[in-house]
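Q: What residues go here?
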């Protein structure tokens, strides 16, 4: 997403860009740097506009994301979209966590357009998040929108808050899951999904 340098602050997704600029400038001063030196002079503006993009999930409209892409079809086998790359910011330290989401559902009379599932993942990733909540939000949204026989979501991510600071464990990975309907009730259905996403999976890496 590119932003015009001349775009008025109030036009950018309703974000208070000027307030963010001031806060970033104050932060630069607080850590002992000079916000007026050449390399940092435009940093508050760049960061403020970057946050508009990184937090665009707050202003995303679910109806526009789905955009009528629900199709009636006589199909009741598992649909899986795997390895959906996402980037989010941990709400505890505002450091990135990066990973992949795997989403499955079993239709009950209708399916959703393929591109919409990654967009749903992005809608919830582009917020201040914790991985557990994000996983549940994705599953709940698909369940409510499609009313399928079941929904399953597995999210795998690396968290910079555990890699750059604190325990400093570079190889630590976090996996979360959320299940609805037949994925929760039926062990064989759940196992089929987990085997599918494990097949040919690549390790997360920076």
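A:
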């Amino acid at each position: 997403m590119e932003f015009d340098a001349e775009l008025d602050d109030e036009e950018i997704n309703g974000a208070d860009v000027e307030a963010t600029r001031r806060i970033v400038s104050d932060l630069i001063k607080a850590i002992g740097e000079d916000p007026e030196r050449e390399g940092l002079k435009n940093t508050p503006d760049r960061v403020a506009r970057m946050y508009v993009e990184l937090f665009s999930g707050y202003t995303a409209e679910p109806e526009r994301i789905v955009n009528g892409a629900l199709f009636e079809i006589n199909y009741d086998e598992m649909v899986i979209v795997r390895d959906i790359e996402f980037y989010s910011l941990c709400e505890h330290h505002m450091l990135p966590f990066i990973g992949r989401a795997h989403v499955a559902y079993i239709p009950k009379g209708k399916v959703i357009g393929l591109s919409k599932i990654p967009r749903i993942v992005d809608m919830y990733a582009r917020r201040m998040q914790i991985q557990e909540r994000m996983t549940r939000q994705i599953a709940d949204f698909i369940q409510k929108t499609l009313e399928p026989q079941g929904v399953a979501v597995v999210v795998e991510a690396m968290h910079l808050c555990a890699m750059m600071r604190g325990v400093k464990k570079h190889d630590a990975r976090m996996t979360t899951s959320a299940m609805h309907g037949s994925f929760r009730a039926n062990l064989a259905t759940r196992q089929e999904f987990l085997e599918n996403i494990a097949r040919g999976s690549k390790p997360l890496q920076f």
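A: Context that may help when evaluating the design: Confidence is low (pLDDT under 50) at residues 1-11. Residues 63-198 form a domain with the GTP Cyclohydrolase I, domain 2 fold (CATH 3.30.1130.10).
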